[in-house]
Amino acid sequence: MTSLHRLCGIKAIVTIGAALSMTAGLALAGDNNVSADKILKALQPKPLTRGLSAGAQVDPAVKAKETTFLQTLRNRNTRSLSLGEREEIAAIAATKPKIDLEIQFDYNSAEITKTSMPSVQALGKALSDANLKGSTFVLAGHTDAIGSDGYNQDLSERRADTIKRYLAEKYGINGTDLVTVGYGESKPKDAKAPTAPVNRRVQVVNMDTKTASK
Predict the structure, then answer these.
(1) How many angstroms separate the first and last alpha carbons of the chain?
(2) Cα–Cα nearest to 129, from 38, 57, 11, 50
(3) Longest CA–CA separation in the chain, Å
(4) pTM
(5) Can you list the domains of the chain with their CATH numbers?
(6) What confidence tens digit (pLDDT) does each residue in 160-175 have?
(7) What is the 3-state secondary structure (H, E, C) of 73-86?
(8) 133 touches 184 (CB < 8 A)
């Protein structure tokens, strides 16, 4: 195998990534045995309580704006999203529940490897749970900085689309509840090491915001 082939092979690893919430994290990156229960716990928003101060409450106007924007993304082709729309998705996702999983793809493709299938299946089971019913999930593809910008952008979109297609076909998850977006190498998880494996990921975000408990 040539050095070029080895280098390209490195690009075949993708991680579904992020933190558990704004204030709490769950380090699951690299965990191929993560359970559906762990994924469910990570993606389920914590309900607001009456004890929270007014400043901590969700602004109804902000929530309405987010909801309206997310409605415009349903049934959209990943590649049809503008740069501005991609950035707005990222801004909203920054405050939402997320989780890290490790997903590997076949060499130079968007096909999920057999070894990573248990992780994807666990994700499918979690997203099928009644506790997450009605939520909109974003599948955001990211790559490392190896390769051209155009190649990485396309790869991130194709891999996000692959996860969406699998979840819809195998678990019956409504495609309109799964929004896919690609960021290529533009948003590394570790900006100080742009070629590091941790940057190769598909971020799964629960975009739904729960109201205060009554």
Answers:
(1) 62
(2) 38
(3) 62
(4) 0.75
(5) 3-46+55-206 (3.30.1330.60)
(6) 999 999 999 999 999 9
(7) HCCCCHHHCCHHHH
(8) no
